[in-house]
Amino acid sequence: MDIVKQQLAEIGVVPDDWDGDTLMVPVSARNQTGIDDLLEAILLVADESVITANPDGELVGTILEGELDRQRGVLATVLVQNGTLRVGDIVLAGQAWGKIRAMFDEKGKRIKAAGPSTPAQIMGLSDVPHAGDLLRLAESERDARSTAESRRLDMVTAPAPAVLTLEDAFARFRAGETKQLNLIIKADVQGTLEPIVSSLEKLGSSELHPEILHADIGNITDSDVMLASTSDAIVLGFQVDVDNAARRRADAEGVDIRTYNIIYKLIEDVELALEGMLEPVYEDVRIGLAEVRQVFNIRRVGKIAGCHIREGEARRNAKVRVLRHGEVIHEGRISSLKRFEEDVREVRAGFECGVGVAQFDDLQEGDVLEFVVSERVR
Description:
Blueprint: H1 2-10, H2 35-48, E1 60-69, E2 73-82, E3 85-86, E4 90-93, E5 96-104, E6 110-111, E7 113-114, E8 119-125, E9 134-137, H3 141-154, H4 166-174, E10 180-187, H5 190-201, E11 209-217, H6 222-230, E12 233-238, H7 244-253, E13 257-260, H8 263-275, E14 282-298, E15 302-315, E16 319-324, E17 327-339, E18 342-343, E19 346-348, E20 352-357, E21 368-376
Parallel strand pairs: 10-11, 10-12, 12-13
Antiparallel strand pairs: 1-2, 1-9, 2-8, 3-7, 4-5, 4-9, 5-6, 5-8, 14-15, 14-21, 15-19, 15-20, 16-17, 16-21, 17-18, 17-20
Helix pairs in contact: 4-8, 5-8, 6-7
């Protein structure tokens, strides 16, 4: 407790028992102690403080927490400090704006208005706001959208020339090209974003360390990828989705996007990248599909499937899966790929070819051959 008090005193928050003016009450949720003392202290401070609010005055509220609910969309918990917040109001909070479609009290019951000192959960914002953002009324949807967009543009940092992946970070450091790992963090709620950011900031060393350029709530969007592309950053998401536009831009500009459902795995990957130990991840990607229309038995060679390429292409260096009635019965490599007695490297859709499957001699008419290659997962 004394260590905490010392740290608070260093930033100007001096406890009352150290001759300061800040009342501090030790509380333990685990031991269920200090709650009554805390409530009594709150009432004491409230009695001594002159706090007034006008329910008919200008609306001012503070965002306590924001989250992205899969069913209801963006939800934000706000504490009204002045004025009255009503369903249908057009509001602005940081980079988020919107028309309030519904409000709920602390028990989840619908309410139509929230006055001073009233907490409320609101629906209808365009994006997940940050904890601490001030919520105010806007004159119109057009003004709210314009102000929010202006604030969002102010968050864009100066561009840098290149992009990198987690696997490349340590190599870039060794070559003297970078001294930090730039990150953009997106999470589902503020309660998970803060510990992720706190844990990442503790990683690394004075020579190579993670630099968090932007941390926010909500899905990974096109603007996140644009920021990553211009600032040489990697995008990490925790329990969020990636917008289609964001994924297309990431593929086009080579931005590394990684999503996680477990916090320690996210932290571990960044730590391994800083140590130069992160191994590339590969997955099988289908590049073509062929239908076996006839099977030829070639002496000293075995069975060759006369195939018609239905989609994609067949490649000589690809792996092949044999499907029968929709089930994979064999997986191996291509032993031969021919067109009119000629060995070829690839055959595209719409053409016929002969395919030999290594160590498999049970090919039948009607089988389907699936050609796959291993590609590095970004």
